[in-house]
Backbone:
């Protein structure tokens, strides 16, 4: 079982994560981890915080001489902005000598759409700073670091995970399912929104600009594609082990994600079965583990909670960010009078960054399912088990 926990606040000293269950012998590419962390910080519509941070993950344990040992992996991601927040976020009961930054007042005006009010009520805080610092999407940097390790485990069996932005506001890619993994993999890293269609991307940028000018924010949607995923991951025998359920929960745990769809997604509710279910035809010589082909992939690579050999395709839908520069109405809970919502430094649009987090969460769930299916305390053992399964399964579908 692959599992992880994170700790840390948005403006605290650092983010920390502990990852357990990574097999021994996995060579870790630290540059790849840094690359994913930097991708999370990019995208048109991001705020000033991204100009401050330059995220890197420092391995504290579980990796020796560049390879995992099978022990828990501890990673530390320092917050460079900590020096500006020490007087507000210090851990000690009294202000430490030499603390830097401003001593900010308590936050008492909750933002509609944020965890501010719900957390304030749940934990009985007097200052919503105690809620928003942990509920902030800054925490997802730690997830991306874990996802980078999970991605490297998936690549030992030939699988890969990519993403692309398909919607921002009213600008959308017409039919993402006609795009292939290769189409998405070919998107240049430095594109403003990591969208396949340059014309649609310009429409998205215009929508973000309009929102910024109005003091507003903008949401959207992204698709994650997992390519060459082994068939047979997940199970249909218990509700909590179905892979689509596990993936949906993982993606829904990302801040601001409000819906998830696989393959054709919500559109399956409006179409007849003849236009939804993916026909099964002879492979026609195409190399495939399961020996058959699918002309379509409306199911998104999952049937009955199990991977079926097609690319896994999942879309996540993100609401607009809750901090508006032209704030909505709220109530100051210190005085119980109407007041504009609090303003925290924020983004206008963070859909491209959320897509990188989405990749990480999909990679983590798939890596967990890979370990569950093929076992092994070392990468060598896991890969040997996968190869035996692949060869055995392929042999069953040889034409007779």
Residues:
């Amino acid at each position: 079982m692959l599992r992880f926990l994170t700790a840390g606040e948005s403006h605290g000293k650092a983010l920390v994560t502990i990852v357990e269950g990574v097999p021994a012998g996995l060579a870790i590419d630290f540059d790849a981890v840094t690359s994913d962390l930097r991708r999370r910080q990019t995208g048109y519509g991001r705020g000033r915080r991204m100009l401050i941070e330059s995220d890197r993950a420092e391995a504290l344990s579980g990796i020796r001489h560049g390879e995992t040992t099978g022990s828990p992996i501890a990673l530390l991601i320092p917050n460079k902005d900590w020096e500006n927040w020490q007087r507000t976020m210090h851990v000690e009961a009294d202000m430490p000598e030499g603390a830097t930054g401003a001593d900010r007042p308590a936050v008492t005006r909750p933002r509609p759409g944020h965890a501010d009010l719900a957390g304030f009520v749940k934990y009985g805080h007097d200052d919503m700073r105690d809620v928003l610092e942990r509920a902030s999407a800054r925490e997802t940097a730690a997830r991306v670091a874990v996802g980078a390790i999970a991605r490297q485990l998936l690549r030992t069996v030939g699988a890969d995970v990519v993403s692309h932005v398909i919607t921002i506001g009213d600008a959308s890619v017409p039919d993402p399912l006609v795009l292939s993994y290769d189409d998405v993999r070919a998107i240049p890293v430095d594109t403003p929104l990591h969208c396949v269609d340059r014309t649609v991307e310009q429409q998205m940028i215009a929508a973000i600009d309009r929102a910024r000018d109005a003091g507003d924010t903008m949401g959207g949607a992204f698709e994650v594609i997992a390519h060459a995923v082994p068939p047979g991951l997940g199970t249909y025998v218990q509700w909590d082990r179905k892979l689509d359920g596990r993936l949906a929960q993982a993606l829904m745990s990302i801040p601001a994600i409000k819906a998830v769809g696989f393959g054709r997604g919500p559109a399956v509710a409006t179409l007849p079965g003849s236009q939804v279910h993916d026909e099964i035809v002879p492979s026609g010589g195409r190399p495939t583990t399961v020996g058959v082909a699918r002309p379509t992939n409306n199911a998104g690579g999952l049937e009955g909670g199990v991977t079926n050999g097609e690319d896994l395709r999942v879309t996540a839908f993100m609401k607009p960010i809750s901090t508006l520069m032209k704030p909505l109405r709220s109530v100051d809970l210190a005085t119980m009078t109407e007041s504009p919502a609090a303003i925290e430094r924020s983004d206008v649009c963070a859909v491209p960054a959320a897509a990188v987090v989405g990749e990480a969460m999909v990679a983590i769930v798939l890596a967990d399912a890979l370990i569950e299916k093929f076992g092994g305390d070392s990468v060598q053992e896991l890969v040997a088990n996968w190869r035996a399964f692949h060869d055995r399964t392929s042999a069953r579908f040889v034409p007779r």
User: Anything to note?
Assistant: The radius of gyration is 23 Å. The domain at 105-396 is CATH 3.60.150.10 (Chorismate synthase, AroC fold).
